[in-house]
Write a structure and sequence with these properties.
Length: 293
């Protein structure tokens, strides 16, 4: 089966329309039709069914699309590997990082990396952990720097540092004059990330286990760096990393409570069995050297 035919098939499958696919590929519709016919003859089954003015994948087409994408990813990895070895200390790292580590750790790591490998480039995506792992699983990222999830069959993980998530409030918040308990926390509104974020799920489970209502969330930002300024300027409570105390946030104070102290290992996550470029391996080595105890 011709690899170029498979790449054309991927675009046709994404568009579900031969005309739009032809425009994207700068090919004629008859040429793309012949491409599909060649593949169908080899497989002995149709890849598309006509629906109205468009087309949709058959079950065979869906199965081939999965395989074609994996093959394309493997070919991309092979090309990158050869290129990296040829260029020595050059290369591209597709890095995903949670906002907390992007602010407190990544600048120092990048400083060391660029001192050792001046021609390395980094494609950085800063987002919540759930979005980063989706990107990793889809092959859009090489590694993710953030909280380590429970072991998944598709991922390899390595602990770099230990972090704690704690309840925070502004330093002069009235909560610090009250009894330290879970019930006290429920007297105030919160600013928390989306329910899909691991730390939010963990906090909810704390209240669930103690047969208490979950915190009342008044603001739910999609950008994590909004949380600390909101805690500092309002009576909202938040749940954030202790790393923030080390970076000069003197307006914040921890509401110390054992039940709401979340211990979370932080480190690197990457897809099991895939190629990691020399540049990516260098980045991981620097992380270990600087932060692994």
């Amino acid at each position: 089966m011709d690899y170029r035919d498979l790449k054309y098939f991927e675009v046709i499958a994404e568009e579900c329309h031969m005309g739009r696919a032809a425009e994207r590929l700068y090919k004629s519709q008859p040429a793309l039709t012949k491409c599909i016919h060649r593949i169908e003859e080899q497989l002995g089954a149709p890849l598309f069914a006509r629906v109205g003015r468009g087309i949709q994948l058959t079950s065979v087409g869906h199965a081939l699309l999965v395989r074609a994408r994996k093959l394309g990813q493997m070919m991309d990895d092979t090309t990158r590997e050869i290129s990296d070895y040829a260029s020595g200390k050059a290369g591209k790292i597709r890095l995903g990082c949670i906002p907390t580590l992007a602010e407190h750790i990544l600048p120092s790591v990048c400083e060391d990396l660029l001192a050792e490998a001046a021609n390395v480039t980094i494609e950085l995506k800063v987002a919540m952990n759930d979005a980063l792992h989706e990107g990793l699983r889809a092959g859009e990222l090489d590694i993710v720097l953030g909280p380590l999830l429970k072991t998944e069959e598709d991922f390899e993980t390595e602990v770099i540092i230990q972090d704690q998530m704690v309840v925070m409030a502004r330093a002069n918040h009235p909560i610090f004059k009250k009894k330290r308990s879970l019930r006290t926390l429920l007297e105030y509104h919160w600013v928390l990330p989306a329910e899909s974020v691991l730390s939010r799920q963990w906090l909810n489970n704390v209240f669930d286990r103690n047969h208490l209502p979950r915190p009342t969330v008044q603001i739910e930002p999609t950008v994590l760096n909004m949380i600390l300024p909101l805690i500092e300027r309002t009576n909202l409570l938040g749940f954030a990393s202790r790393l923030n105390f080390k970076s000069g946030h003197k307006e914040l104070k921890e509401f110390v409570l054992k039940e709401t102290t979340m211990h979370r290992p932080m480190g690197v996550t990457y897809r099991r069995g895939v190629y990691l470029s020399p540049a990516t391996q260098r980045l991981i080595a620097i992380l270990k050297r600087k932060y692994k105890s």
